[in-house]
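Expect sequence, tokenised fold; for instance:
***
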Amino acid sequence: MTIQQRFSLIIALQTALVLVLVGIVSFLVLQRFLEAGEERSLRDALPLIEIHGDLEHEDSHASLSFRPNFPPEVDVRVVQAGQVLAATSTFPDLPLNLPEGYSRKQGHQVLVQSSHTDEHGYTLQLVSDLEGLKEPLKAYLRALAITIPLLMLFAAGLSALTAGRLLRPIRRLEQAALQIGSSGNLRQELPEAHHKDELGRLALSLQTSFGRLADTLERETEFTRAAAHDLRTPLTALKSRIDATLARERSSQDYQKTLLELGQDVSRMSRLTNHLLLLARDETALKRIKVNLAELAGDSVDRAREHNPDTLINFAVKGESQLLADPNLLSHLLDNLLDNAVKHGKGAPVTLELSSASEICLEVKDEGPGLEKEALERLGETFYRPDSARQGEGSGLGLAIVKHIVALHGARWQLDSAPDKGFSVKIWFPKT
């Protein structure tokens, strides 16, 4: 069943329920009004009754007469001391001791009024049939039995037309989504996205989500293409060396040299693979514990000094540096920053400095040749390497990994450089 059909059915059922409730309430109100009208008619008939006879003795007799305009459907009975003194010929068989006032007895409306003479009292009883009430009520029920189904059909048809008009934008949105799925153009503008109603907000949310998905797919495509390119180079070199080695017999020394070169290629591929896996980590895999950034930085500085004995690497700490972070990722970040500063600083002095205020600031800077502004703006992109850094080893993943780790820890970074003025990276971590 479609939404339009369900909507029409629900509206029809709701209309029927409302009409039935209104009919019941109206029926009860009409019944009460008719009863009040009949009671008023009986009371208006009281002054039109004339009783003839001596009512002051227990064995007295009486007769009745009626003035003009007395309602013919009303029967009258006069009762005194448990005896009927006078009654109309069609008075129904009702008990003599009827209660005072208006009541309903055995399908009749009854009005009883007591009167008194000097010594003896009597009771005047007026009765009318309930048929005067039943016929209008039956007619009203017959009218409801006809009008309620007709109104249900009318409501269902009207709601179907209304639902069709309301669902028309959804159909357009559905067609646009199908077109996006067939064409693959996730940046296509969706209809209704400019409207301010609920459907417009839904279309805008979908359009925004599709745009983000398109950005993600583009980044993944670029990442995969660049990763394949960077992996292909060491794989090609590895295969070429293996083929060249197997082409002819060689001495044990030559085999040993070739194996060493192959080991270097495998190590480069291993580092590249580890970097790619590191970039693939998301926030759910982050292990946050309380760490001392100064201790991690000191260990990284020691490793950098050991691997680069000819480069001056300074280290300074100002204030506390406790924070909640993943120590392994922070070690990667520090090693990559120092390795990048040593490698691209061309042997110039490198400084790692920690300071603490409202945030913990980590700065790694070198006094090397620096970079142009255009290259600085692209640093942190996956596999991007400035022209000045394209010689030698490296994959362009160092600062990309740093940027990713910074984002995982909810930190922020800033790159500063200019030609012949060195290069610096500042990262601000939130305190614990």
Remarks:
- The chain is about 50% helix and 20% strand.
- Residues 198-279 form a domain with the Helix Hairpins fold (CATH 1.10.287).
- Confidence is low (pLDDT under 50) at residues 387-392.
